[in-house]
Amino acid sequence: MAIETFTWPTERGSSPEITYRLRTAQFGDGYKQEVGDGPNNKEDSYPITYSGQKAKVLEIMAFFDRHAGAKAFLWTTPLGQLGLFTCKNPAPTPVGGGVFKLTATFDRAFQP
């Protein structure tokens, strides 16, 4: 089965969380060594928001249900970088008039 792509437009404005996983060795004389922890030490996550009609939000939720928080999908970051991501926490909230606000966080995933 091919990897699916998340193609729905998301609202801009939320800042991503980007960190680099490091291993540190601290010595008694104050000297410290740091090195990247593994080949994929960059961890990034992107909060996204989608506002729209109930039918469209149900379509997106079905996409998330198919991936069940563990199966990765393709998504293009706000900087235009295509990558693999997972989503473990989608939250649709009714706003009124059949409109919903869907919030979620996309976490970077890596192929084995």
Automatic annotation (TrEMBL):
<dbReference type="InterPro" id="IPR010265">
    <property type="entry name" value="Phage_lambda_TipM"/>
</dbReference>
<dbReference type="Pfam" id="PF05939">
    <property type="entry name" value="Phage_min_tail"/>
</dbReference>
<protein>
    <submittedName>
        <fullName>Phage tail protein</fullName>
    </submittedName>
</protein>
